[in-house]
Amino acid sequence: MSGTDVVVTGVGRVSADGFDFRTALGRRGYKYLPSATQYLLAAARRALADAGPEALEAAGPERRGAAVGTNSAAVALHHAMDGTVTGTGAEGLSPLTAPYFSINLFGSRLATEHDLKGFNLTLTTPRVAGFEALRTGRRALAAGRAGLLIAGATEEALPEDEPGADTSEAGAVALLLEPADSLAARGGRALGRLDIRTLFLPPRLAASGEGTDRAAALVRDALDALGHRPDAPLTTTAVLDGSPVGEAVAAALENVTGDGKPELVPAGAGALEPVARAAAALDGDPGRTHAVLTAAAEGHLAVCLVTPGDTGAGADGQPTSTPRRADDR
Length: 329
What we know:
Layout: E1 6-15, H1 21-24, H2 35-51, E2 64-69, H3 75-87, H4 105-114, E3 119-123, H5 129-142, E4 148-155, E5 171-179, H6 180-186, E6 192-200, H7 203-206, H8 211-225, E7 234-240, H9 244-256, E8 263-266, H10 272-281, E9 289-295, E10 300-308, E11 311-313, E12 319-321
Parallel strand pairs: 2-3, 2-4, 7-8, 7-9
Antiparallel strand pairs: 1-5, 4-5, 6-10, 9-10, 11-12
């Protein structure tokens, strides 16, 4: 999409393993929030800290937006609510957690916490929801409808009896995106750029003899639309399951991604792993782009092209390079 140049300026990651909301967020005001909301808030704080103390104030509240992707943030809570309603009645629901029957509320606290008044979106498409959140929010920035975006994915572990529980994801990844000219004005550092295309491969077609060829065409078209030249170096990571759609995409990559064998990563039950892989790719070789792909059994497919590089811009608009320390985030 043409328009404002958008860069990633901060990344925050949170794993459920060893997570303590009191340490990550504070002792007061967070205890009764759903775990997925706690993870998201902590990841967003880390992304903002990574971007620097002036990042949030570079855009007024009405110019700040949020976009969050999730597949399983509410599942465990909804199970518990169902058990309460069928067991003791609706009067037994906690007034503190009952509002979270709405998936939109899991990201709403993020908007309240950081005064994000421009927009607040929640996307839930299987496996690609995190990439859809980044794409939708980034398009708003590129079109000039916002001046700062916090976007990413958050997930909570599925109940044991829920399909996909054995591959549950739990944690969050948040990225801070800003227009490049805003970054230059505050003398900040860019971690790189990313852009995303979302596609659809019908499962029945994927399972047919034409599935691999169709998947290859979709991926090639996406990479072309994202500006990748076929003769340019490209590292590829694919987060895929064993469905016909996942297998068709995996087979297609052998003929699409050129000079390197793609890294195949088993997909989890949610939308977190693809975003985590894209965030990690920002730490890669600045001279080499990285494609992160994912697909769901339902047919949803997304391609994220990451261009890493810590070359930022000073207040005079000239490039400046700030080495990124291992402990920066």
